[in-house]
Specification:
This protein is of the alpha/beta class. The protein contains eleven helices and ten strands. GO terms for molecular function: ferrous iron binding; oxidoreductase activity, acting on single donors with incorporation of molecular oxygen, incorporation of two atoms of oxygen; zinc ion binding. InterPro entries: Extradiol_dOase_DODA, Xdiol_dOase_suB.
Length: 274
């Protein structure tokens, strides 16, 4: 079987679920162009554990893990089936790489999972399993987690890292959602995208020491770490498609990436979201 691309998508605020904008349009296009996966393994910053844990519910519940948003959001569902078999395959793959991992038989899907999936696979007809993040660990650890998962991507599993290309909620300005993004956000994003295009893995793994405004763009690593898992899980992350859908709330860059040899067929979408 040909490997699937791996994805990193920015899910932004929970309101993305009802305000699709350019990001929702991009995710819908990606879902239409992707080869149909047998299952999805999704990593979100909204599930953090000391060591990797994988949800194994047959029917994952949708978690409305936020507050203070419009009532409409709390009525949304994503009735996808889970995949206990994929959960066990994921744990086995991590353990074979020397990474301790466990099964969580109760974990549902947080908004970092179901919000983008509503656009990627609106019929909720692909089984979904969620893998937790370890935000106390560095990018190189998450890249190695991704490498351990790479056999899954070669076997019909779509690995998705969901986060935010920049994420500083302290400076979020709701009233400026349609205004140009803060300058530092664009400078950070430009540096990161250039290093990605150049295949400069050492600089990317140590981005907090090299990227302009890295700590301001990401006071914590959590929303960028899923990107490194997606990179590591691909058959060749230097083959990539980059999708720039702009900035929301002044500070949330909504870029997405597809990685691997199968990502090259998705580059045509880049022009459609400009």
């Amino acid at each position: 079987m040909s490997p699937l691309p791996t994805l990193f998508v920015s899910h932004g605020a929970p309101t993305l679920a009802i305000e699709p904008g350019r990001t929702g349009a991009l995710l819908s296009l990606l879902g239409q162009r992707l080869p149909r996966p047998e299952a999805i393994l999704l990593i979100s910053p909204h599930w953090a554990t000391p060591q990797p844990s994988v949800g194994s519910l047959i029917t994952p519940t949708v978690m409305h893990d936020f507050s203070g948003f419009p009532r409409e959001l709390y009525r949304l569902d994503y009735p996808a089936q889970g995949s206990p078999a994929l959960a066990h395959r994921t744990v086995d793959a991590l353990r074979e790489a020397g990474i301790a991992a466990t099964i969580d038989p109760q974990r549902g899907l947080d908004h970092g999972a179901w919000v983008p999936l509503r656009y990627l696979f609106p019929e909720a007809d692909v089984p979904v399993t969620q893998l937790s993040l370890q935000p106390h660990q560095a990018p190189d650890y998450h890249y190695r987690v991704g490498q351990a998962l790479s056999p899954l991507a070669r076997d019909g599993v779509l690995v998705i890292g969901s986060g935010s290309f920049t994420h500083n909620l302290r400076e979020l300005r709701v009233q400026q959602d349609r205004m140009p993004g803060a300058r530092y956000v664009d400078e950070f994003a430009q540096w990161f995208a250039e290093r990605m295009a150049a295949g400069d893995l050492p600089a990317l793994l140590d981005y907090r020491a090299h990227a302009p405004y890295a700590v301001r763009a990401h006071p914590g690593d959590d929303h960028l770490l899923p990107l490194f898992i997606a990179m590591g899980a691909s058959d060749d992350w230097t083959l990539q498609a980059h999708f720039d859908t702009g900035t929301t709330y002044d500070v949330l860059r909504m870029d997405a990436f597809a990685f691997g040899s199968a990502a090259l067929a998705l580059r045509e979408i880049e022009a459609l979201v400009d």
